[in-house]
Every structure is written in structure tokens, then in C-alpha cells.
Specification:
It contains three helices and 24 strands. The chain is mainly β and 297 residues long.
């Protein structure tokens, strides 16, 4: 059984009560998987009209992790469809790209998938408070009425526990031209040939969403399909879904500062990002060259 350990715990006011942000950053740097445990009351968080005080415990998987400036961490729920607890899915099919920073600041981007008509007007939107939810604090809101609204907020969960599975092993790192910086291609190929899982850290994947002066960053995501060309000595991996966000401390959503898609990464440094425009749901492929670190488990 995979071991999970809490390396950072925050109280409702987001003060550190156990562990440290540094311990979380160290684990994410090593490729660790991330899940976050929270607690809340049904009548406070799910249905403000309900008298229920039942405590709900939630653990959510953050399939995409960020390491910003080699010190700040965040995670994104990359596979979540909205659920209306305790009975059904949300009324409209969409992705719920919840984002948690290491200090408990949260955000959500929601590209709708049903094709309903939507506004094309983008930009900052008036903040809409939610009646009966005093623990919800809206920070800002973007692109309301479009196909891909987003908002940044804080919800005062009773507790935040950042739990990691620190079981990955870095076996190869190389620069954007594929020049090996550490480990070896042979170690990666040997592990993959034995059926090991593979994960990749991609440096600079989100720079085109930002501007000069944005901090350095790595996006870390698991790979689903792997291939090795035996004569070319070229290893290729296709990732799980990736949510790209403009690198910042803290990370947050804003107009034209995020998108999503899939990555094909290669050990010669070539990265192809199959981008989905969240507003139109149209796809295009973008070829980049990035420094990569490869992990196995």
C-alpha cells in the first residue's frame, strides 16, 4: 500500500499548526503526489439553507502540482467534475479546476463542456458574495458569463492537511536540448520496461501565459502512455490532463492567464502541448523546448 504522510497542516485561519511549507516544497520537488484533506459543515459549505451541522471530511487529489521559484507550491484538481453533495453531479457538465496554494488560498476555473451559448466578453467581473456562507471570502472574479469563468477566494475550512506520497525516484534530468544533467536515459528505460509508473516535471511550460519577469516554475504531472524508440534512443510520454496557469506567488486565475490540455514530452527536450482554449473548446498544438526531470515508481 502506498504510504501517505501529512507534511503541512493549517488551521481554519490558515496558520501553520504542523509541518512546514518547506517540507511540502521539498516533497513536491521530489515528484511527490499531493492530496489535501479538509473538514467542513454541510449547512455552512454545501447548502446554506440547510440546518444540518453534519461534519464532512474531504480528501481531493491534485493531479497537477506546481513548484514556483523552487520554493512555493500549489496543486490543481485536473480531473474533477462538479458534484452536488450528497446526491448528484452539478447541473452543467464542466471541469472543476480547483487550485490550492500552500497557504490555503484557493481558486477555481470552470470550463463548461455542454456547448451552451455564452458571452464572449472577458475581463474582471463584479464579486458576487454567497449569502449564508460567512466562511467564504471572495477575492476577485473573472470572465463571468463566458464559457470559462474563474474566481480566487478563501474558504475557512476547519483544517487543511497537505498529504504526500513521496515514493517517486528521479532517474533522469536534461536541459531543453536534451543534454543530460543528471541520471541516465538507461535508468528511465529500464524502469519503464519493468512496468514502472512515470512522471515528468516540465520547466517553463506556462511562460507564454505570462510576461518577462515572471518567476521560474515547474509543472509536474503523471504520464499515462510511454514509448521508447530503440534505435533513436528517444523516450516519449503522453501526460494526464494539464492545467496551465501563469506562474506567480501565489498562483491565481485571471483572464487569459490559464488554459488546459495534454503534453507529449520527449527526452530530446521537445514538448508538444495540445492546448484547449477554455472559452471556445477549440484545440491547437504548440511545440516548445523545455528542461525536463523524469521520475519513476
Amino acid at each position: 500500500m502506498t504510504a501517505w504522510n501529512c507534511v503541512l497542516e493549517l488551521a481554519s485561519d490558515r496558520a501553520v499548526t504542523k509541518g512546514s511549507p518547506e517540507a511540502l516544497a521539498d516533497a513536491i520537488r521530489r515528484g511527490a503526489d499531493l492530496r489535501v484533506y479538509t473538514e467542513f459543515r454541510h449547512g455552512e459549505h454545501i447548502d446554506p439553507s440547510s440546518p444540518s451541522r453534519e461534519l464532512i471530511r474531504e480528501v481531493a487529489e491534485f493531479g497537477v502540482t506546481y513548484l514556483i521559484d523552487d520554493r512555493w507550491t500549489a496543486g490543481v484538481m485536473s480531473l474533477r467534475q462538479p458534484i452536488e453533495l450528497p446526491h448528484r453531479f452539478g447541473p452543467r457538465p464542466s471541469m472543476s479546476f480547483f487550485l490550492y496554494n500552500q497557504d490555503g488560498r484557493q481558486a477555481i476555473a470552470r470550463p463548461f463542456l455542454d456547448g451552451n451559448p455564452a458571452s464572449t466578453t472577458r475581463g474582471q467581473s463584479p464579486v458576487e458574495p454567497i449569502a449564508g456562507m460567512p466562511k467564504y471570502h471572495a477575492l476577485d472574479q473573472w470572465d463571468a458569463g463566458t464559457n470559462a469563468p474563474s474566481q480566487n477566494f478563501i474558504y475557512d475550512f476547519d483544517v487543511f492537511r497537505y498529504c504526500v506520497s513521496d515514493s517517486w525516484r528521479e532517474v533522469l534530468s536534461h536541459d531543453a536540448a536534451g543534454v543530460v544533467q543528471g541520471g541516465s536515459l538507461e535508468a528511465l528505460v529500464d524502469a519503464f520496461s519493468q512496468g514502472c509508473e512515470v512522471k515528468v516535471a516540465i520547466r517553463g511550460l506556462c511562460h507564454e501565459l505570462g510576461a518577462a519577469g515572471d518567476p521560474d516554475h515547474e509543472v509536474i504531472v503523471q504520464i499515462g502512455s510511454t514509448y521508447f524508440y530503440t534505435e533513436q534512443r528517444l523516450f516519449i510520454g503522453g501526460t494526464h490532463p494539464v492545467v496551465r496557469i501563469r506562474p506567480a506567488i501565489p498562483i491565481k486565475y485571471a483572464t487569459d492567464a490559464w488554459d488546459f490540455g495534454w503534453v507529449m514530452a520527449r527526452t530530446d527536450g521537445q514538448v508538444v502541448f495540445r492546448r484547449c482554449d477554455p472559452h471556445t473548446l477549440r484545440f491547437d498544438d504548440r511545440t516548445l523546448h523545455c528542461a525536463l526531470r523524469w521520475f519513476v515508481r
